[in-house]
Amino acid sequence: MGERANSLGAAEQRVIKAIAGLDAGTNRDHFLAEAREAVWAYFVQRELIGFRRHTDVIRDLGIPPEVLNGLGAMPHKTK
Question: Pfam families attached here (predicted)?
Answer without folding.
Answer: DUF6665
